[in-house]
């Protein structure tokens, strides 16, 4: 089956099994490997992408449902929030193994785009679905606050 | 597991003994056949090439990391050692993972090339500084000749080589000339006051790539146009074998190119990942469980507990502990049990290779390349030098990729041979473990039981300490047995207990080995994951028995261990141990030495309305010798605390009739943002040799939290995780 959608602003046609998760279409069909496979059941957030600006788990989003959708991946994020988040992540050396960080950054960017001055409770709520087994959470929290400050500056 | 290896290795390997010999990397012949990196001649015009550092004409300084990087920051750490002695600028430094070559890149503490035991910086500290200093001496010698000036008048700073105000060049401009200089045997090293990176926090080199989703970072990302992807159906019970299978439906899935039986199961091979996963879900397999582990974990724990009631292998024997207990005024008894734990690295296991019938090339995060390399050559029946391993970044490991039996290499090489036997054209193939494959696939932190009897005199002083432990040994029966077991004793199981520096007048420790097909493996901090919990909660209990403050009691008991005293005092001071707590808050402390480093942690907790525990804050103090990158030390301790906390709160892998119950993050619930306490890490200044930091933050957190709970409730949890006691 063929599905036409927008990925990072470009119109792409996917010739894939409609049951295929978007995750594998991105990684294997389009060669965009920044979006990670972590659990396959929407429990870890490593595969987070934006669908029409909203963070979703691409491992539980199926190609057959995406006709006309607008998807943004880690390779394509830009804008004030994304730039601030990536800068803050670098400034605080957030990643350790780094495997979850694409998903963390996608979730944090969506949070800041919606809530530019998040409280710790906002951060818990927005980020609890994104697992980091290196437990870099303390730095992720700091980096989100720092990114928020950067956006204001 | 060696039992998995027996089958594929049978043809190539006449005996298990010779396999062990090869796997342990002790056979000079195979190793010597490798080409060493060229000593001085440069491969490319104008390039400086030494085993640990290359300087390119474009002014890039490439450091070859003999250790893989699973997030612990070693790659950047090694770069800082070279850059410091070479006086390179941090911006011109990049890192590449070294090829597999134990003669050049062995971990000096292992004798083989490999990463683990928090040894990376400890075993490299002198070596990588020497490499940087030698390169600098050669650069200076080349500049001296070029400019016809005395070498002693030349300075190097920030990657710029200068003579006075009028002559200067970059490292890259001098690289080709320097390559022709003699390598100094003993280059002069800087004194600590001259260091520009060591001891200062410098940014990690891998962060940028990891914040933009850069391609070709992890094994999972490995791609080639002709790449095949395989997923393997493995026995749901450890030790089970395929009796028969029907792949008719699997083969109908578009993209599935073949389904082949391999010794470890049935492999579904497809043109990409999703068809392989879908194809596998349609397989029908009948398993032969005749030799499989079919017990439930309850029965296995009961067996372990029973083992601790009887004498085992003597790990430590100070004297007649039973007589001393008999003569004691009181005896404190305790029994602990710990579950299997999965490592749960974010990147599930994966490995990629290409075998053309004569040579093999691998792409994966190889944690022990010497073993992986030897096993690959052995299974494929090709010479060692026909195998090439490209090491990639690891999306975590926590011990999971330190495979003593190289099981992913065994699996993919047996698959490559099966593909060859099936007449398939040579093609690169990647095996992907799904999360379920990874989590239900064994290689766990062993489950264990511990039985303690501690004798006290009338005043509450310890008179005798008897400790029996039972678990499956991680190293017994593996290539590491010869290296890590002495006189039949497995110290990996008892580290942190038998070698305690608490001043007990008499301590005996016995160990017993459980026999099970469930494969077990090193898990971040290994034996310390359970011994620190047992020792530090027991010490808290003994302090209470002696009516003493937990910190004061420990300080009395470790007075001959000054570095332990140092971290304990620092953590207590920074946590305000002697200050009153707010209403509803409780504190607990633990101090433990592991991998040469000392860590004390004070946990501050509260209870939610439903009675569950919330860890509010952790104050840590660490002494890991010379701090190389303080910010990375803090990061590792923060992460080590989070990793240990998640496990202690709610993680366990349980078996029902031999089948794993927790197979993904929905049931093996990892620590999340809202669970994470505020963490402060304080580093003790030190000029001692640097020791490990990847693991030592983990052991104290469990007992610190348990002691805080006991401070509130008067009881120490002895069966983990804490969720079993309704505390989570």
Automatic annotation (TrEMBL), chain A:
What Gene Ontology molecular-function terms does this entry list? Answer: 2 iron, 2 sulfur cluster binding; metal ion binding; oxidoreductase activity
Q: Which UniProt keywords apply?
A: 2Fe-2S, Iron, Iron-sulfur, Metal-binding, Oxidoreductase
InterPro entries, sorted: 2Fe-2S-bd, 2Fe-2S-bd_dom_sf, 2Fe-2S_ferredoxin-like_sf, 2Fe-2S_ferredoxin-type, 2Fe2S_fd_BS, Beta-grasp_dom_sf, Diverse_Oxidoreductases
Q: Which PROSITE patterns match?
A: 2FE2S_FER_1 (PS00197), 2FE2S_FER_2 (PS51085)
Question: Known Pfam families for this protein?
Answer: Fer2, Fer2_2
Q: Which residue intervals define the domain 2Fe-2S ferredoxin-type in the entry? A: 1-77
Query: What protein is this chain from?
Result: Putative aldehyde dehydrogenase subunit protein
Q: Which organism is it from?
A: Roseibium aggregatum (strain ATCC 25650 / DSM 13394 / JCM 20685 / NBRC 16684 / NCIMB 2208 / IAM 12614 / B1)
According to the entry, what is the taxonomic lineage of the organism?
Answer: Bacteria, Pseudomonadati, Pseudomonadota, Alphaproteobacteria, Hyphomicrobiales
Automatic annotation (TrEMBL), chain B:
Q: Which Pfam family, giving just one, matches this sequence?
A: MoCoBD_1
Q: Where are the transmembrane segments?
A: none
What are the Aldehyde oxidase/xanthine dehydrogenase a/b hammerhead domain coordinates in residue numbering?
A: 212-291
InterPro entries xref list: Ald_Oxase/Xan_DH_a/b (IPR000674), AldOxase/xan_DH_MoCoBD1 (IPR008274), AldOxase/xan_DH_MoCoBD2 (IPR046867), AldOxase/xan_DH_Mopterin-bd_sf (IPR037165), N-heterocyclic_Hydroxylase (IPR052516), OxRdtase_Mopterin-bd_su_IorB (IPR012368), TAT_signal (IPR006311)
Q: Which SMART domains is this protein grouped with?
A: Ald_Xan_dh_C (SM01008)
The domain of life is Bacteria
Q: Which Gene3D superfamilies match?
A: Aldehyde oxidase/xanthine dehydrogenase, a/b hammerhead, Aldehyde oxidase/xanthine dehydrogenase, molybdopterin binding domain
GO terms (molecular function) for this protein are: oxidoreductase activity
Q: What name appears for this protein in its UniProt entry? A: Isoquinoline 1-oxidoreductase, beta subunit
Q: Which source organism does the UniProt entry give?
A: Roseibium aggregatum (strain ATCC 25650 / DSM 13394 / JCM 20685 / NBRC 16684 / NCIMB 2208 / IAM 12614 / B1) (Stappia aggregata)
């Amino acid at each position: 089956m063929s599905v036409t959608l927008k990925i990072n602003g470009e119109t792409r046609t996917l010739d894939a099994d409609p049951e295929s998760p978007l995750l594998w279409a991105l990684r294997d069909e389009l060669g965009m490997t920044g979006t990670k496979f972590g659990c396959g059941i929407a429990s870890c957030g490593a595969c987070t992408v934006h669908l029409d600006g909203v963070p979703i788990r691409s491992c539980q989003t199926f190609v057959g449902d995406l006709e006309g959708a607008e998807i943004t991946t880690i390779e394509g994020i830009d804008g004030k929030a994304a730039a601030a988040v990536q800068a803050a992540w670098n400034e605080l050396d957030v990643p350790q193994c780094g495997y979850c960080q694409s998903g963390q950054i996608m979730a944090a960017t969506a949070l800041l785009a919606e809530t530019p001055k998040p409280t710790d409770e906002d951060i818990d709520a927005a980020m609890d679905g994104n697992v980091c087994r290196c437990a870099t959470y303390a730095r992720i929290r700091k980096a989100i606050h720092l990114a928020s400050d950067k956006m204001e500056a | 597991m060696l039992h998995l290896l027996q089958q594929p290795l049978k043809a190539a390997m006449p005996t298990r003994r010779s396999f062990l010999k090869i796997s342990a990397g002790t056979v000079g012949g195979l190793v010597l056949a490798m080409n060493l990196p060229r000593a001085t001649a440069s491969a490319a015009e104008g390039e400086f090439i030494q085993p640990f550092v290359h300087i390119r004409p474009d002014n890039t300084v490439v450091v070859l990391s003999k250790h893989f990087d699973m997030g612990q920051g070693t790659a950047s750490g090694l770069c800082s050692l070279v850059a410091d002695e070479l006086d390179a600028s941090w911006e011109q430094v990049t890192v590449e993972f070294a090829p597999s070559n134990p003669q050049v890149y062995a971990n000096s503490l292992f004798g083989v090339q490999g990463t683990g035991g928090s040894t990376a910086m400890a075993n490299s500290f002198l070596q990588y500084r020497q490499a940087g200093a030698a390169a600098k001496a050669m650069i200076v010698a080349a500049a001296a000749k070029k400019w016809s000036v005395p070498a002693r008048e030349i300075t190097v700073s920030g990657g710029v080589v200068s003579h006075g105000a009028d002559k200067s060049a970059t490292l890259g401009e001098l690289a080709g000339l320097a390559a022709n200089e003699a390598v100094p045997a003993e280059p002069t090293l800087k004194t600590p006051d001259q260091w520009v990176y060591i001891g200062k926090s410098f940014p990690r080199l891998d962060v940028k790539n990891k914040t933009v989703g850069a391609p070709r970072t992890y094994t999972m990302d490995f791609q080639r146009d002709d790449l095949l992807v395989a997923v393997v159906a493995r026995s749901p019970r450890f030790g089970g074998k395929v009796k028969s299978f029907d792949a008719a439906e699997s083969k109908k899935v578009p993209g599935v190119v073949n389904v082949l039986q391999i010794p470890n199961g049935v492999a579904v091979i497809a043109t990409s990942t999703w068809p392989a996963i879908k194809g596998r879900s349609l397989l029908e397999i009948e398993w032969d469980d005749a030799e499989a582990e079919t017990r439930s974990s309850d029965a296995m724990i009961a067996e372990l507990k029973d083992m601790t009631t009887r004498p085992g292998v003597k790990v430590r024997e100070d004297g007649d502990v039973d007589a001393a207990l008999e003569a004691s005024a009181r005896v404190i008894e305790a029994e602990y049990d710990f579950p299997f734990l999965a490592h749960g690295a974010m990147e599930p296991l994966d490995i990629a290779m290409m075998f053309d019938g004569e040579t093999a090339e691998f792409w994966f995060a190889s944690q022990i390349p010497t073993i992986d390399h030897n096993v690959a050559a052995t299974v494929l029946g090709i010479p060692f030098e026909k195998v090439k391993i490209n090491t990639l970044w690891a999306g975590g490991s926590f011990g999971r990729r330190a495979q003593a039996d190289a099981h992913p290499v065994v699996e993919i090489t047996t698959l490559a041979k099966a593909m060859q036997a099936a007449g398939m054209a040579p093609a690169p193939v990647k095996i992907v473990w799904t999360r379920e494959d990874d989590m239900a696939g064994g290689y766990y932190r062993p489950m264990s039981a511990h039985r303690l009897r501690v004798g006290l005199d009338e005043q509450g002083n310890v008179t005798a300490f008897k400790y029996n432990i039972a678990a499956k040994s991680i190293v017994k029966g593996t290539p590491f047995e010869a290296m890590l077991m002495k006189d039949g004793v497995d110290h990996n199981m008892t580290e942190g207990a038998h070698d305690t520096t608490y001043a007990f007048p008499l301590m005996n420790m016995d160990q017993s080995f459980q026999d099970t097909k469930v494969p077990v493996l090193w898990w971040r901090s290994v034996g310390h994951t359970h011994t620190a919990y047992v020792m530090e909660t027991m010490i808290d209990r003994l302090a209470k028995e002696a009516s003493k403050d937990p910190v004061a009691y420990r300080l009395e008991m470790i007075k001959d261990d000054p570095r332990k005293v140092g971290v304990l005092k620092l953590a207590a001071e920074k946590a305000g141990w002697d200050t009153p707590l707010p209403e509803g808050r409780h504190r607990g402390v633990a101090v433990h030495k592991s991998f040469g480093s000392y860590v004390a942690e004070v946990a501050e907790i509260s209870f939610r309305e439903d009675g569950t525990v919330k860890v509010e804050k952790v104050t840590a103090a660490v002494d890991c010798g010379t701090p190389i990158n303080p910010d990375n030390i803090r990061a590792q301790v923060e992460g080590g605390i989070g990793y240990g906390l998640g496990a202690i709160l709610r993680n366990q892998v349980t078996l029902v009739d031999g089948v794993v119950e927790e197979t993904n993050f929905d049931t093996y619930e990892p620590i999340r943002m809202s669970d994470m306490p505020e963490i402060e890490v304080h580093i003790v200044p030190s000029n001692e040799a640097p020791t490990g930091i990847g693991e030592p933050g983990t052991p104290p957190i469990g007992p610190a939290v348990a002691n805080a709970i006991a401070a509130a409730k008067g009881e120490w949890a002895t069966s983990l995780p804490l969720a079993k006691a309704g505390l989570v």
